[in-house]
Amino acid sequence: MFNRKKRMFEGQERSNDEAGGGRHSASLSSLLTKKVKKEHHDTGSLERMAQRSNLNTRNEEVFVSNGDFYDNPFDDPDDEICVLNADEVFKKIGFSQEVQDFYMKKKNIRDLHNWQKECLTEPNFLNGENFILSLKTGAGKNLVAELMMLREGLVNNKNCIIVLPYVAAAQEKARSLSAFEELEIFAEEYTGSEGKIPPVKRRKGQNIFVATYERANTLMDKLIKENRLGEIGLFVVDGLHMIGEKGRGDTVEKLIFKYLMLGSVQIIGMSSALGPDDKTEMCKFMRAKLFSSNFQPVKVVERVKIGDSLYNVSKKGDLIIHSKMGINDINRNDDSDGLISLIKGIVPQKSVVVFCPTKDNSEHVCEMIATLLPGSFKKPNVQRQEIIDNIKNENGGYIEETMKIGICAGIAYHHSGLTNGEKFWIETGFKTGALYALCATSTLCTGVNLPARCVIIKQPFIGKDFLEKSGYIQMIGRAGRSGYEGESITIVGRRCEWKFRNMLKSPLKSCRSQLLNEVNLEKFIKNLIYLKLVKNVEGLRDSLSKTLAGIQNNDECLSLMEEVLQSLKARDVIKIENGVRLKLNYQQCNCL
Question: Whole-model pTM?
Answer without folding.
Answer: 0.84
